[in-house]
Amino acid sequence: MLARPRLHLTMALLLVLPGACKDSRPSRFAQLQGSAAGDAPGATGDAPGATGDAPGATGATGTPTAWPALDEELLAASAATMRFRLGTPAPLAITPQGAVLYRRTGARERVADLYELPAGSDQPVLLASAAALLAGGVEQLSDAEKARRERTRTSTRGVVDISMSQDGRRILAPVGERLFVLDRQPAGQVGAPAAAATAPAAPAAPAAPAAPAAPAPAASSVRELSTGGGFPFDPQLSPDGSRVVWNHDGDLWVTSVAGGKPARITQHPAGLEYGVAEFVAQEELERRRGTWWSPDGKLLAFQRTDARQMETLYVADARHPEKAPVPFLYPRAGKPNAKVDLGLVPASGGAPRWITWDLARYPYLAQVHWTKNAPLTLIVLSRDQTELAALAVDLATGATSVLVSERDATWLNAPTDLLTWLPDGSGFLWRTESPGSWTLDRYDAKGQRVGSVVGPQAGLREVCGLSADGRDLFIEAAADPREQHVWRWPLAGGDGATALTSGGGVHSATCKHGAVVIRSALRDGGVRHQVIRADGTRAELPSVAERPTLVPTTTFANVSVEGHMQYAAITRPRTFDAGRKYPVLLYVYAGPHAKVVVDSRDEYVMDQWYADAGFIVVRTDGRGTPDRGRDYERAISRDLITLPMTDQLGALRKLGRKYPELDLARVGVFGWSFGGYMSAMAVLMHPEIFAAGIAGAPVTDWELYDSAYTERYMKEPKDNPEGYRRTSALTYADRLERPLLMIHGISDDNVHFAHTLALIEALYAAGKRAQVVTLSATHMVPDPKLVLAREKIQIDFFREHLAVARPEIAARVEAERRAVDDDRERRFGDKADGEPPPARPGDRRAP
Question: What total of structural domains would you count in the chain?
Answer without folding.
Answer: 1
